[in-house]
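Handout, page 2. Input:
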Amino acid sequence: MKNVVTGLFTYAEFGVVLTSFLPIMAVSHYRHRGDPTQRMPGRWMRRLGRTATRFQWLWDFHVEGEAPPDIDHKAYVVVANHESTADPFLLSWLPWDMRWVAKEELFRPPFVGWAMRWGGDIPLRRGQGESIRQMMDDCAAALAGGISVMMFPEGTRSKDASLLPFKDGAFRLAIEAQVPVLPLAIAGTHAMRPKNSKWFGKAKAGVRVLAPIPTKGLTLDDLPALREQCRDTISAALPDMRSRYGARA
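Output:
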């Protein structure tokens, strides 16, 4: 019963914040519709995430580590492990602009889908070649414009928050654009909303910004090594983080 009550409060609170932001986001989307970076619409999306979190007493978020000093004007391919649908709320507290890649199904519902589209997120229909090519083109244009791109290389969430194998897309993108990969380690959001759960729960979570991994001079032959280096870097950070985050607050 407690989970139902807190879950209903979470949905109601987010609904109020979302509907308050949508008119502003629609205007920003229209004004910046020709900008491949979607920097300003993306800032409104981050503000939406932070505002929803501020009014949310269930969640205690923390950011660790330092952002690269040049990330405001130099593009990175940012990658993170994916524990929960609460991850974007946590990552909205990172102090830099990004365009996000998300599965196309999330863009279809009204309100949430409108916010994602108007916030400059990039849709991906998994398993469909044309959609993948369009996503890669949109990401390449964003990187060329000087803004980072955010991807979850696992492609989905595991049921128990274990780290799944990484897919190639983010690392192919980084090598082709010759931009660094910036790994992030997330812990604790799984307790907020495990996969297939209808409700958000109370928990403490954190994200740690790890050291960038350069790609200058790499070719696609180096892709498997880059992918595994990044996965190993995130995996190494998780035990310490999970010892401090994830337990119910």
